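Anyone? Bumping this.
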Amino acid sequence: MSGRMWRRRWLACALVPACLSCHLEEPFARDNLWDLDSDAVRTLVGPDSTFAVGDLIHVTLTTDPPLPPGAPHVQWFANEESLSETKVLPVSPGVFRVLTASAAYLPVAVSVRFDEAIVAWTVWVGQKLATFDLYCGSVAVPACDAAPLAAQQLRTVGSVMADARGVSLAHREALMARATVIVRSPGIVDVPTIANVSGNWTVRGLSTGASWVVITADGVRDSVRFVVP
Amino acid sequence: MLASASVAGAQTPARERPPAAPDSILAPGPAGGGFLEWRTAIAARGRTGASYLVDGERYQILVLTPMAVDALAQDSLIVKATRGCQRALNLSDPQVASTDTIDPWAAFDSAARARPLVAIAIYPREQRRFDCHAGVLARFAALSRGALYGAFGPVRAFEQVASAEMRRDGLVEPTPLTGRAPVTKVTRTQLVVDGSEQVRLWIDPLAFSPDAEGRVPRLEVHVYNPVDPEPDVLPLPDRLIRAVWQQMLPWHARTLDAADAALAIPPVEFAAPTDSSLRVAHEAFTRGALGLAASEALTRLMFQPRPPQREIRDAMLASAVAFSLRDRDPEALSLIADVMEVYPCLTLAPEAPASLRDMADASRKPARCTSIPLPVIALRSVIPGYGQATGPLRRRLALTVFASTALTYAAAEGARGFARTAYREYEAYQGGDFPNAVTRYKRAQNARTAGNALTVAAAGLWIGAGVEAVWNEWQHTQRLADVREVGRPRARRTTMAPAIGIDHLGLRVVF
C-alpha cells in the first residue's frame, strides 16, 4: 500500500467515527409518570356522585406512557375531612367505598399518587332519599287524622328516611331544606317548619276542615291528612 | 612556550593591587581616532547604551560601555536613587543631596574617555540590599559610582575586592586601564566609607567579538579577595556579551571609512526605509559610503523608537554587507547571526558577497523554509492539530491542539454517556426511591448540557485550530516571500503574473 493511500485510510478511520459521533444530544423526553414536572398524561375518570352509604366508586386511570403492570408505588387515596361525616376509603386500585355520608352532599377527591404527582377525580358523595315515610305519633300508627288538630294547635310529623341501601339518612336538615311541602287546602293547616336534624315537620291547624300535606324530597313523596274540627 | 607565558602573565597582574588614580591619560590608539568626537555626538543625541549587572555569590559586576558611562554620568541620577531610599534608610535631605559628590571614577573616566573601552566594575555584594531606588537607571548610576544601599555587617576580608582580571576563552585579556576606588555604603541614617573598595577594568571591546564561526566567546571575570589565593569566577552571560558587542558596532562601523575612504558601490540593494535616519544611511549605502551608512544605521538602532522590523532587518543586512566588503568579517558575522536568529529562512541575493551568503548559511537555525499549499493545510486540519504540525517549532502547539481537542471531545462523550445512563435510570424509575424522578431528570439533563457544551467547545477548538493553521501558513508564506533573495537589485527583478481580461488572456512580465 502506498504512503498516500495509507494516509488517506488513516484519515478516514480517524474522521468517520469522530464525525458520526460528533453531534449534540437532543433534549430528553420528560415522560416519567412519577415525575411531578413531566409531560406524561395522567387522567382519572369516574362517576360524578354517589347516593348511598356503601356505594362503590369505580375510577379509571388513563396514562401515557402506559402504567407498567404491577407498578409498586402507586397509591390510591381519598381526602379525609376530619370534621365531616363523609368518609370514602380505597378498597382496591381504582375502587373506593363510601363509608359514611349524609344527606348533605360533599365533594370528595379520590386520587392516585405517583410520588409527588397526584391525579384526582372529584365525586359528590351523599345520601339520596329512597325510603320516605311520614307519621304522627308512632311509626306503627302513622295516621295523623286519627286525632283532630285544633285551630292554632301544633303537631309534629315524624319521618322515616333511608337511602337506597336502607341506611338512615344523617343530617336530615339538608334533605328538609331541599324538600317541597305542599298543603292541599292552604286555609285549613300550614307547615311552619324549621329544618332540623330529626327530620320532623310541624303542622298547625288554622280553620275547620281537612287537608292533605304532601312532602316531596329527592323524587320520593309521602303525605299525611289532618282534620281541624 | 607561549601558553606558559600566558599563564604566568595571568597570575602576576591579578595579585597586584590596582592604582587608586590613573597613571596617565589613555591615547585614542590606532583604531580609536575620532572616538571622542563620535562619543560626544552620541551623548548629545540622547541617552543610550545599556549597562548590565551580573550578580555573583560575593560580588556583583557592572558592565558599562562608553555610551552607558555617559548615560549614567549625571549627578542627578545618584541623588534620585538616594532620594528613593531616603525613607527606607531614614536619611536627611542634606545626606541625600551630598551623594552628588560621590564620583570616585571621575579621573579614570576622564583618562579613558578618548579610547573605545568597555568598563568592568566589580563590587562587593550588599549583605541585605534595599531595592528602594527610583528606577533601574538611577540604581545603576548609583552603583556605577560605588554607592551600595542596604544593611551592612562588619567588613570581612574574604568578601572584599582586591583585584580582578577578565579572561576570554581562558586567556587573560589585557587591561589598558585598571583602578580601585572606595565604596560608599548608604545605610540606615548614614553614609559610610569603611574601607571597602571597588575595582574597575577597562577592556578593549574586541574582547567581546565573536569568534571566526560567529560563536560568542566565553568571558569570565576572576575576582580576587585579599586573603584567598583562588579567585571567584564570574562568567558573563552570552546575551550580555552579544549586547555589549552590538553596542560597540556603530563605532566599529565608523572606522570602515577611515581605513579606506574610497567609495564602493555595493552589489546589493535594499528598499528605501521610511525612518529618516535610516533613509540617510540608505542613501549613503547606495552611493558607496559604507562606513557612514553602517554607522548611521547601527547608531539609529540604538535609539528609541524602534523602526519597523523590516527596516531594522535591512539596516542590519546593509551594515553586514558594508563590513563584509571592507573585510571585517567578525562584525559582519555577528550582524548576520543576529538577523538569521529572527529570520532563519532568509536568503541573500546572488549578488551579495559570497562570504556573506556563507555566513548566512552557517548561522541558519533549523527551520522550515518551505510553504505548504493552503488547501493541503485545510485538509490536514481536518485532524485536529495536524494543520499545526508543519515544523519543529509548532510541534508542541500541534500536540496541544490535538490533545486538548481530543480531551474535550472525550470529556463531551463521557458527559453524554453519563447523561444517557442517568436518563435510563430516570425512565426506569417507578417511585418510592431516592433520588426522586425530578432529581434524576435534572441530573441527566445537566450532564447532557455539559456534554453538548463540551462538544461545541471541541468543535470550536477544531475549527479554530484549522483557521489558525491556514492563517499561520499564509503568514509563513508571506514571510518566506519577504526574505527570499533579500538585497537583489531592483532593476534585475522580474515579476510575472497572469493577465486575464475580457478580450485577452496572457502573462504579464514586469522587469
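Late reply, but here is one note on the structure posted above: The CA atoms of residues 97 and 386 of chain B lie 65 Å apart.
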